[in-house]
Amino acid sequence: MPGIPMNAIEISSNGDAYVGSDLGMFYLANGSTEWIPFDNGLPIVPVTDIEIEGANLYISTFGRGVWKSDLYSTCSSDYFLTGDVSGHKIFEASNIINTQQEIRGGLNSTVLYKADNYIKFLPGFKSGKGGRIRAYESACGDYIE
Predict the structure, then answer these.
(1) Report field, pTM of the whole predicted structure over 0.70
(2) Longest Cα–Cα distance in the chain
(3) How far apart are CA 1 and CA 66, in angstroms?
(4) Assuming Cys at both sites, which of 30, 69, 95, 103 could form a disulfide with 131, CB separation 3.0 to 4.6 Å?
(5) Across 74-98, average pLDDT
(6) How does DSSP assign the chain, residue by residue?
(7) Quick one: pLDDT at residue 70?
């Protein structure tokens, strides 16, 4: 976990931890020692409060309102991804990922692809200047830095 102020913490019913910081959200699976960024479409802004209701996470931010997200979950079997993407995103699949996405946002964009079998960048895939892409063949839930 980065050495930054942590502003809020919420523990799910299964013992997973969600922490809101000055740089967004982080997630720690029950029994793990590795914190991972939890972006899931959320802006990278200071988080002021976190609440869990059922399978939903409600996140209060400084200057960007309240956001609703699904709790962290295990990955899907397959992904076929299209369209524009920006910000910090993680796509995990237990089998394959096929992507034709266009990564936008320059230095503010980091996209991580992780699949157990393979990841295929199809014709039409693009990444703008400064965008970061990481692709790993790894099992769902494995932390990769």
Answers:
(1) no
(2) 43
(3) 23
(4) 103
(5) 84
(6) --SS-EEEEEE-TTS-EEEEETTEEEEE-TT----EE--TT--SS-EEEEEEETTEEEEEETTTEEEEEEPP-PPEEEEEE-SEE-SEEEEEEEEEEEE--EE-SGGG-EEEEEESSEEEE-TT-EE-TT-EEEEEE--TT----
(7) 75
